[in-house]
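User: Structure please.
Assistant: Input sequence and predicted structure:
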Amino acid sequence: MVTAQKIFDLLFSYEKQSSLVNKKVLYQTTLEAVDRGQIDFFIFSCLATKRDREELIVNFFKTLFFDGGTKIISRKFKKVVQITQELESLGMVVNIFPILSDTEPKRTWGWKLPQDELSIACEIMVEQSQNSDLIPKNWCPKLWSEIELGYDNDWNFFCNILNWVRSNGKHQFRVREQIRCLAKFSDRYYFPLGLEETAIRQVASYAFEGMVFQDKFPGAILLQSEYPPSEKDVLYNLLRNQKRPLTILHPFND
């Protein structure tokens, strides 16, 4: 019989940033997963774009989590397949939900393209993954707009979080962290609003995403694939109930 301790030990054996893990929360999440007989993972796969242009590269396998460079598929993808197989060997049902953040170019970066156009491009990428032999059947790519549907009623909801970040001095440190992070990607992504405004919007977006996960997927585990994890993890929990921060695992070296 599979136990929560056995699942916990397996997951923690893949952890590369043990100092960032809330072991109590991870154990509670595995306990709930064992009760259900099912464990769900979410992974954000950042969209790829044309340099200095408001244009997506409409290729699912060029999104950052899946892009293997000269390889067909990334090492991160292979690592998650390995984790999945080990969990299934213990009798667990495993679901993997890669997320394409179709709202990010307009909401966070400030692109002028219509949201419908961006979402359609991401829907095409999801279809590409479904028509490929590379993605296992228990992988179900989703758009972020699909996940937040029914939670975020209008633009004003996000604006309230945005104003909260702007007006709260304690968040300025987080904003400065994101400015430094975004600067490293400014040769690959177009940020028409400038780094500071984009960083403010990014902090607000992560906080909002953490809230959505809390309310809609309380038992899910985020596989952190973004860098640096020490900065990104904190943002997801800014608006969450501090007694139950987002369960996050860091199984990747890069």
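Residues 103 and 175 are 20 Å apart (CA to CA).
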